[in-house]
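Objective 1b. Sequence-to-structure analysis of S-adenosyl-L-homocysteine hydrolase NAD binding domain-containing protein.
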Amino acid sequence: MAARKEYGPGQPFKGLNINGSLHMTIQTGVLIETLSALGAKVRWCSCNIFSTQDHAAAAIAKAGTSTVFAWKGETLPEYWWCTEQMMTVPGADGCDQLVDDGGDATLLMHKGKEFEEKYAKDGSLPDPASTTNAEYKCILQLLKDSIPADKTKYTRMAAKCKGVSEETTTGVHRLREMAAKGELLFPAINVNDCVTKSKFDNVYGCRHSLPDSIMRATDVMIGGKRALVAGYGDVGKGCAFAMRGAGAAC
């Protein structure tokens, strides 16, 4: 709200296409509204097939604040279709800035450019049968269908993008690996390690949401149970503290 009040009149994002792959919730809706209020043209999808709040997605779409490709319970092929639609900006080569959570949109752009270069070199297309990973199979199928229709779509998209923010530990690790190999096509900002993310979201957020979700889903008392938390990073610590606080042996 403060950003809208302070920067809204100046329209710092006017003329920019800002695309995002983030959990399509009410909170994300507020972010989308803020980007729009600051002048951006916004396109959005969800970074998770389960987390979309349909009423939030519908409200943003109905208001015309953003073009939204998200609904709760997407299949994997639908999820990747939504990701491609979000990234495909009508009348432009792609977005100017990308807001990513999990790195899937960033990955698709990089893999798209990689396979477009192979296609230009020898006419080869991605082979979905070359992998047993269900999600990567969807990516290869999407690119196999996309490249013959537009041979340089993702190459142009990568050139257009000025930078990406990444919000998840796994996505940040992937970006660091790409940067170390010289494969990262545009600048990236690590949002995951900001204190507002690593502490309020990963530690305190999980500390609140884990017992809440277990109690809502099972209606079983946590106290007296044995809980196993695999991993002891910020998220693992928050989960372990929560279970211990609720009386579990952790």
